[in-house]
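Hi L.,

You mentioned the student needs an example of a multi-chain input paired with its predicted structure. This one should do, with 670 residues in total across all chains.
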Amino acid sequence: MPRIVRFHRTGGPEVLCLEEAPPEQPREGEVLIRNQAIGLNNSEAQLRRGDYPMLTADLPSRIGRECAGIVEAIGPSVTTVKPNDLVSTIPAFDVKRNGVYGEWCVVPEVGVARVPMRLSRLEAAAVWQQYLTAYGPLVLNSRLEPSMTVLITAAASSVGLGAIQVAKLFGTRVIATTRTASKEAIIRSAGADDVIITSHQPLVASVNHLTDGRGFDLGLDPIAGPGIADLIDCAAPEAAIHLYGQLAGEPSFFPLRAMLRKGLTVRGYTLWEITLNPARREAAKQYIFNHLDSGKLRPIIDRVFPLESVVEAHRYLESGRQAGKIVIEVAGNVS
Amino acid sequence: MPRIVRFHRTGGPEVLCLEEAPPEQPREGEVLIRNQAIGLNNSEAQLRRGDYPMLTADLPSRIGRECAGIVEAIGPSVTTVKPNDLVSTIPAFDVKRNGVYGEWCVVPEVGVARVPMRLSRLEAAAVWQQYLTAYGPLVLNSRLEPSMTVLITAAASSVGLGAIQVAKLFGTRVIATTRTASKEAIIRSAGADDVIITSHQPLVASVNHLTDGRGFDLGLDPIAGPGIADLIDCAAPEAAIHLYGQLAGEPSFFPLRAMLRKGLTVRGYTLWEITLNPARREAAKQYIFNHLDSGKLRPIIDRVFPLESVVEAHRYLESGRQAGKIVIEVAGNVS
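Structure written out for the whole complex:
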């Protein structure tokens, strides 16, 4: 009997249960996928803990939004994929019914994408969350120019590394931050021009030093909290800071005076702005496909766990030790 | 002997002194103006009190940035105006040397503009601060469309009324707020479609009611402080809130979760982004001149004080009782 991952209460990684469950039949507009690889995201640890700002899980709940696998069956009116296609999923659906952790998932057709020839199946499970998250702030909502400096914090995360790659498509200078010195090499391999190790180097002074006192033009930050004040301090006049998470988990004051003085923009952003809007989603997919096909974008995998170790994989996800994407391989489905 | 207004210490309105001072000769690139009318701005009360976020006065200091009058003399290399021209001033200079309260002022040529034929001299002293402040958020940094709803708070201020007029140039719906019921009529006369009297009507519920629960698309607010939370609450998805002041004078928390959920943008803004950038300044002037010349923009004057009553005028400015611009008339220079 195939297995899926569900949780019946919110809590630590141990609430994730591997349970036997027969595949559901795809309904109108749905696709049943036999998963081969599953990409893990921080927002899934938040959902599991019960502190995901976008959604509260309706228990018991499936979990997960990114996987790659083989189409097993399609529901009525599905036209863009057919059985035996190799596909991956785009996070554009409800996890309660469509969560992907496990050996199979049922997702809406709009949440299915082809797998570029250059990508492995592990990499294909690591595409959409990171590049779609980077796409909004860096492509859709900005006009990046080579003269600009982009600051990417928590840069060793999968989104951080993906965002570095996207920013470099525009020829901008990228300054990246990480707390962990050992992650510098992988951050540089993604294209960062400068890396600030924030456990040893003060952010504001480092950015000011690297930019001759001017500061960064566009910031991309999933941490927020009190660190916003530092970002504001090393932002250039009329810079924009795009916040896409709340890893700090702490409130902070509104930096009004500095925002007035410098004419700063602060924007909250989640990839739902892309995935729930059909026109944007299609434009974003095309953009990302083009650069995956050309090899200019390529997901960076940190570590692979077997499905049986999903609890351990989530523990590792929350440890912050990874640099790049954590992927689960579904051995039973790999041929 | 002509008189100018200066202050030798920061404090209440009474620190403003009317002192005799011979006109300075205009230097390279400067223009000496015999003032006939002077427009008062809230930021001048802040400068006088010592809590202007953009600048701390270097004492003793002149004060004021908006006036209308006759060119008395021009310095070397000035080409765009000549003696006896009727002009007004654009806030694009240092007040220490170039402050305009008094019977004369010396300002840089870039801070001088012609007076449109449709405007009185009192109105000409009330043009640039309000329309340039509105221009950035509503014209330069936004793409307003008739389907959008603009929320303008503190709408009976000169900037508020000017911003209503500018927003209506785009055919957008304008919801305006004021604490004072008696100001509703003048706010409607500026073009507001709906007025919320915040002393009696709750902001969030009122905006939601007026927009069928959708919220506003673009907000323009000089108050900030704890009221930011209310603005966030009645903002539509992907709305932008432009803050251009800190009248509340109180800190507030950073509304991260709602900004993430709704994809909101918050921007700090001052008209210095326009006035200190030559290309933007010229484009803004042209835009505003076009609409002043056509009669679509027209400053609203609240009350006129004689120069001798500058202290009383500042008291009135800080009382919040005005609806529109407070102007000082310089009787001795009016022919």
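You could point out the following to them. The mean pLDDT of chain A is 96. Residues 29 and 78 of chain A are 5 Å apart (CA to CA).

Best wishes,
N.
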